[in-house]
UniProtKB/TrEMBL annotation, chain A:
Keywords: 3Fe-4S, Electron transport, Iron, Iron-sulfur, Metal-binding, Transport
Cofactors required: [3Fe-4S] cluster
SUPFAM superfamilies the record matches: 4Fe-4S ferredoxins
Recorded GO MF terms: 3 iron, 4 sulfur cluster binding; electron transfer activity; iron ion binding
Stored InterPro entries: 3Fe4S_ferredoxin (IPR001080), 4Fe4S_Fe-S-bd (IPR017896), Fe-S_cluster_ET (IPR051269)
Pfam family, one: Fer4_15
Keyword Signal: no
Function: Ferredoxins are iron-sulfur proteins that transfer electrons in a wide variety of metabolic reactions.
Top-level taxon of origin: Bacteria
Domain 4Fe-4S ferredoxin-type as annotated: residue spans: 3-31
Full protein name: Ferredoxin
From TrEMBL, chain B:
GO function terms (MF aspect): heme binding; iron ion binding; monooxygenase activity; oxidoreductase activity, acting on paired donors, with incorporation or reduction of molecular oxygen
Protein name as annotated: Cytochrome P450
Pfam family, one: p450
First and last residue of the signal peptide: none
Gene3D superfamilies: Cytochrome P450 (1.10.630.10)
Lineage, broadest ranks: Bacteria, Bacillati, Actinomycetota, Actinomycetes, Micromonosporales
Pathway per the UniProt entry: Antibiotic biosynthesis; mycinamicin biosynthesis
Biological process terms in GO annotation: antibiotic biosynthetic process
Keyword annotations: Antibiotic biosynthesis, Heme, Iron, Metal-binding, Monooxygenase, NADP, Oxidoreductase
Presence of the UniProt keyword Ligase in the record: no
Alphabetized InterPro entries for the sequence: Cyt_P450, Cyt_P450_B, Cyt_P450_CS, Cyt_P450_sf
Length: 64, 408
């Protein structure tokens, strides 16, 4: 696991669970869809990132 | 006549009047639906696969092989569609798939994102204050549903959309019919038509207004209708969806949550006042435990998909039961215990997949502010009726209490 995070804005449905779960890594743009603040998030945020990926209803977040 | 083979199947949703409003499925009923996937008969005499486990519910609701479009032949309907129901569904994106769905939903994602909801928290707070004043003036005793739980989300969604709250009796009644599984199809058709007419006039007026007001429908009129991206009829359909979804859901959560916090374990309600920082976690557990969409979410298989060890074939219906998924012991330790300190964020009370509730940040904020302020301003609140006799909304798609007598 490298901890590299990817988001697929085409799949995003703007439910906002990621921003609620890991606000230090995820944001929402003016269109309400997911924005990634870091592609390689700090290690201490990884647990939150994994939880956000698990909670994403649209499967738009992947962690390698 | 129901064919004999059908009568052998358990009926879903079960008819279980007189149950405890805090228990989604009575123990006897739970045994009948205990398998991961069970074939059931619906009130329309259609059959469907009932999917009850957390992992399976998530797989079903996220799988592109399942459709939410109830106009497709074979869709597992809980009640018959009213005549003509399929002719004007424009804008109702909750029942659409793929690009058709995401095109409309994406016009709203910015409106309901966390940042936008944080900006309107002062408005929510003011509305909570105002409705709590009404509760104070109405009693003691008073009906918490009529004076607080229902008016609060109703006022907030009206303000957001730009719908005059003065008309709330008109659309609350019609919204209720639309959610009532036992409503006669002709009445549903009539009430849908009246709601559409009402919203059509409102939307037309907003589109015609030179000086656009700062509300969601006016913004969509300016940014999407004027540019030709969105038809007026589609905006009307979206307005109807948001108005209905914004009414009963949060109202029922506030009513049932208050009942839960006042009942059973002493100190739960006081803890809300003494430790409001815990309110976010508490709200997630309330959403999990109460799971108000108890009849589940219906879908139609477009291809053969295996869920929970059962092959669901193209053309068959499946129902994702959110309430049992939220009590799945694999995910939640001691799932039948209400534990305000548990991390319950994996719950599926808002659904899952691309249709997951777009209004969830709003619902969470309303619920949190409503409960904290209620506990702060009414520290001595207690139930004023035996909980076994509370009128419940058993026939509604969204479960809740019709009334909650309280005193202080």
């Amino acid at each position: 696991m490298t901890g590299r995070v990817r988001v697929d804005r085409d799949r995003c449905c703007g439910a906002g669970n990621c921003v609620l779960t890991a606000p230090e890594v995820f944001d929402q743009g003016d269109d309400g869809l997911v924005l990634l603040r870091f592609t390689a998030p700090p290690p201490q945020t990884l647990e939150g990132v994994r939880r956000a990926a698990d909670l994403c209803p649209a499967g738009a977040i992947t962690v390698d | 006549m129901i064919p004999a083979a059908l009568t052998d199947l358990p009926l879903w949703p079960p008819t279980n009047l007189g149950r405890d409003p805090l228990v989604p499925l009575d123990p006897g009923e739970r045994d009948r639906f205990d398998a991961p996937v069970t074939k059931v008969r619906l009130p329309t005499d259609a059959t469907a696969w009932l999917v009850t486990r957390h992992a399976d519910v998530r797989q079903l609701l996220r799988h592109p092989g399942f459709s939410a479009d109830l106009s497709r032949p074979g869709f597992p309907l809980l009640r018959a569609l009213p005549p003509g129901a399929l002719s004007d569904r424009r804008g109702g994106f909750i029942r659409m798939d793929g690009m058709e769905h995401s095109r409309l939903r994406r016009m709203l994602t910015a409106e309901f994102m966390l940042k936008s909801i944080r900006r309107i928290e002062p408005l929510i707070r003011q509305t909570v204050d105002r409705t709590l004043d009404d509760l104070r003036d109405a009693g003691p005793p008073a009906d918490l549903v009529a004076t607080f739980a229902l008016p609060l989300p109703s006022m907030v969604i009206c303000h957001l959309l730009g719908v005059p709250y003065a008309d709330h009796d008109f659309f609350q009644l019609r919204s209720r019919t639309l959610l009532d599984r036992d409503a006669a199809p002709e009445l549903v058709r009539e009430h849908v038509a009246q709601l559409r007419d009402y919203l059509h006039r409102l939307v037309e007026a907003k589109c015609a207004a030179g000086d656009r007001a700062d509300d969601l429908l006016s913004r969509l009129a300016r940014d999407r209708v004027d540019t030709g991206e969105l038809a007026v009829d589609e905006l009307v359909g979206m307005a109807m969806l948001l108005l209905i979804a914004g009414h009963e859901t949060t109202a029922n959560m506030i009513g049932l949550s208050t009942l839960l916090l006042l009942r059973d374990v002493p100190g739960r309600y006081a803890a809300l006042r003494d430790d409001p920082d815990q309110a976010d976690t508490l709200v997630e557990e309330l959403l999990r435990y109460l799971s108000i969409v108890r009849t589940g979410l219906p879908r139609l298989a477009l291809e053969d998909v295996e869920i929970g060890g059962q092959l669901i074939r193209a053309g068959e219906g499946a129902i994702a039961v959110l309430s049992t998924a939220n009590r799945d012991p694999v995910v939640f330790d001691g799932p039948d215990e209400f534990d305000p300190y548990r991390q319950a964020h994996q719950h599926v009370a808002f659904g899952f997949g691309v249709h997951q509730c777009i209004g969830q940040p709003l619902a969470r904020a309303e619920l949190r502010i409503a409960l904290v302020e209620l506990a702060r301003r009414f520290p001595d609140l207690r139930l004023a009726a035996p909980t076994g006799q509370l009128p419940t909304r058993d026939n509604s798609i969204v479960f809740g209490l019709d009334a909650l007598p309280v005193t202080w």
